[in-house]
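Worked Example 4.2. Read the sequence first, then its structure tokens.
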Amino acid sequence: MFGKKTFINKNILIYGLGLSGKSCLQFLSDKNKITIFDDNEYLKNKKNKNFFLDIKRINKFKFDYIVLSPGIDIKQCKLTKYLLNNQNKIITELDIFHVIYSKNTKITITGTNGKSTTCQMLFKIFKSNNKDVRLVGNIGNPPLFEKNIKKETIFIIEASSYQISYSNFFKTDHAAILNLSTDHLERHGNINNYAKAKLKLFYNQEMYKQSYIEKNNKIINKNIYLKKIKSKLNKINYDKIKFFKRKIKNSNILDKNNLNNIHFIYAICKKFNFQDNVIFESLNNFKGLKYRKQIIYDKNNLKIINDSKSTSFSSTVGLLSEYKNIYWIVGGKYKKGDRFKLNKKYYKNISAYIIGLSKSYFVKQFKNKIQFKYLKNLKKTILIIKKEIKNQKNSKIILFSPSAASFDQFKNFEERGVYFNKLVRQIILKKL
């Protein structure tokens, strides 16, 4: 049905001019008639203004395809009515990518937490095995930006539920849902819809391909058999923890969440017949990702961790249970449906410092559980924490793990992470 001529001489609307939309524009514009629309009119500039159309003119056009960027919510955008009436024409960057590179091996990783780190670790292992491997999706280049693709090129793809849910014919050879907890309910409505969006990866797979899930994840198991799955389903039960702890000497990845995700990595690598020594050598040399459980200082009984990438409680809980005497900086714009769940035995180890927009939400989560303070901004928080740890000789942890989105005060989690590091250098470490 689809081939390389699928996207030649077509009338195509690209909705959303973020990084994904730009890659589609660049890839498709030479051989197709392209129209652009974005809810943000300020994205119109000299280079692309000839591609833009207003809403009234778009409604008069008949497009062959509508390429929808992941950031667009079909139910809450300026073209909602038009999109709902033309759902059969909606495709994504992943769909285009698959049509063009259908013969290449694809490994697609999704889940609530740990996607980026898992993809990066897989990438390192494949590189160590001398594979021509590309890291694309949320963690790397948009796949359509990649150049010099050969038959043997392997793609490791980090995919969000937003990307998957609107993709209609993207297929992957290996599909892994690392974990699933409450997230993105502002888009999906409830946890079951969120699970179904992720599981679409499996439903689109063909026979003899491989899929991977947590064996005991109740939400995934509740929803997984709603449609027939043709691929080989591998259920991961975390039975190799002791084995991995013997083999891995890298403190950056020895926390519970990473060890769980390494079960997926190991299972995938074994499908490619990689040797254990190469797998574990790569893992032991892995330095971690910026702003994801990143230890930026560890001296004089003080450890400072920048985990700005954390946008939900589920991504932070592992760290809270791993350490003692934690000064936890938390807050931002909370995610609908998120809940603070931590074993009570760890409460006494934590002092929380709430910042950002969603003060009342975090106060409600912590009340009668852990001690907390509310401060207006990150700088005042750092100043307060410095005073409180000044004369404390015991080991202590300053943990910046917001458990919330950054958009109330920052452009993204990277900007938030950079600012935290700057404050640490200027305030905490200045006279140490």
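Now turn to a second chain, presented in exactly the same format:
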Amino acid sequence: MNKITNIVARQILDSRGNPTVETDVYVNNTMFGRASVPSGASTGEYEAVELRDNHDNYYLGKSVLKAVNNINGLIRENLIGVPIDDQLKIDNLMIEIDGTANKSKLGANSILSVSLSCLKAAASFNNKFLFNFIQKDLPKIMPIPMMNIINGGAHADNLIDFQEFMIMPLNTNRFSESLRIGVEIFHTLKQVLKSKGFSTNVGDEGGFAPNLKSNTEALEIITIAIEKAGYSPGKDVFISLDVAASEFYDKQNKLYKFKGEKHSGLNSSDMIGYFKKICNKFPIISIEDGLDQDDWDGWIKLSKELGEKVQLVGDDLFVTNSDRIKIGIKKNIANSVLIKLNQIGTFSETLEAINLAKLNNYSTIMSHRSGETEDSIISDISVGLSTGQIKTGSASRSDRISKYNQLLRIEEILGESAIFLGKNFKYI
């Protein structure tokens, strides 16, 4: 017998102290899988809907009891007795019950917590490590860490416009070594910031949130930290940016307005020129959401100008949605897809998005959200589906460290069969 026998959901807290959903799925009333879902601060307009209660006098409107009740009621009633090994059936049943294009009836948070709990329960029932159970036929590629070391934008209260400044240690053959280098640079950066009189408080994703004057100043300080830690920028370590341009795009005037730099606004061509300038000055090899999620013409120009030299990542642009990824492929826009489970709401749809991207030679990056939990499932999914890269925050905050620690465990289990493609990264 391998059927779902019980489902129990509850409200817990995420890394920002906001409510989120956690679900237990039982098989044969003994084995179970438990998963909790994250929440984003800067969310794309086309993401699946996160259901919240909006009661101002209870958790300031952020409680998720409606989502919990949907799981303990309608979802439970329909999934009891369904084979735990049939992930596609499980996910499709929930999609059918919801019946909306954006999962607004049941909530993507309720659907995803059940979907991932079922995935974990199935792995447990089959006595498999989760990363092996997910896709046993793929080579086990350890992801390149995109370590967030400076926060700006919606993730910090400072004048830095870009949301994330990340480092990618590539000149090594092991994930654990890449992680070590990143950690060393992170701690060195703290020393550099202190020496210059800046705050070393951290933002939502564990990166430092100093009140720097501009994006350029952040890049300069990161370069100093890389060198001070004993590594060579552009040889050992490279820089990745999450611009999150939709957050500072003036749709009415079609201008990108920086708060940290003096100008009246940049059009799409100006932004592309800005990116070309900083890519020539700093070892930047990946730019995420460089333009607004609806600036399709701008994205076409950006992709023509930089697509052969830089990894251009769609986050708000694609929102892990196969329909939007197909538009990007047709228009030859970007060359990489950021993968966030809660943007789409089920494991099956996430798998579809990853497979579509890979089939069309787009790289994939497994990603956390700014509001995380201690659940480390994205580490297993990243290895199980060979995404090749992962964004999971900085070398601080246990909600981020839990993902790195799980990857260390997986590398240990894999031993010499673990593959790390740092030195073969396409855009070096």
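Notes for the reader: The chain has a mean pLDDT of 95. The first helix runs from residue 65 to 79.
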